Amino acid sequence: IVIDGQKQVLALRRKGTAEEAWQMPQGGIGKDEAPEHAAWRELQEETGLTSADLELLGASREWLVYELPAAFRSPKVGWGQAQRWFLFRARQGAKVRPDSKEFDAFEWVTRAELMSRVVEFRRPVYVRVFSEFANWLEP
Fold first, then answer.
1. Alpha carbon 84 to chain centroid distance?
2. How far apart are CA 14 and CA 71, in angstroms?
3. Cβ count near 1 (within 10 Å)
4. Are strands 2-3 and 86-90 parallel, antiparallel or unpaired?
5. Coil vs helix vs strand at 16
6. Are 60 and 38 in contact (CB under 8 A)?
7. Where would I find the H helices in the chain?
8. CA–CA distance from 41 to each of 18, 37, 44, 51, 99 (Å)?
9. In the structure, how many helices (H) and strands (E) does the chain have?
10. I need a surface site. Which of 12, 19, 63, 109 has the fewest CB within 10 A?
């Protein structure tokens, strides 16, 4: 999760989807890669944001798991994901640059706005992670 100074959440729009599909940055972990390192790497790849742009605030206590609907499964992504979540705050002047491969747009939105835009299967995980980081996300 990346938040700005007003505690809005960074939302990215998936490129090439039939309907608008928004989500938070996320990605895979390489073999022998630490979860925190993977989070920094994926953020830079997907958003252009680096440690100069962001402050790490915390990490989720647990791994959160979800199963993908059959229509979204593939040999590349499998049947679902186990995710470790990190919370970052964007420093003043940080510039988001979607990668144009996976994502083609971004917006800073409220948590409620993101929940209305995210695909159904991601919602339970987002509810849990927002709850875990509530002390950082409340206005």
1. 11
2. 16
3. 24
4. parallel
5. coil
6. no
7. 35-47, 111-117, 123-132, 134-137
8. 28, 6, 5, 10, 13
9. 4, 8
10. 19
Token digits of residue 123: 């919602």
Partners of 59 in the beta sheet?
86
Eight-state DSSP code of residue 62 = S
- Do 54 and 2 meet the contact criterion of CB atoms below 8 Å apart? yes
pLDDT in tens, 95-113: 999 999 999 999 999 999 9
Question: Hey, what amino acid is at 94?
Answer: A
Q: How far apart are CA 100 and CA 97, in angstroms?
A: 9
How is residue 128 written in tokens? 């849990």
Q: How does pLDDT run across 56-94, given as a tens digit for each residue?
A: 999 999 998 878 878 878 887 788 888 999 999 999 999
The pair of structure tokens assigned to 119 is: 């695909």
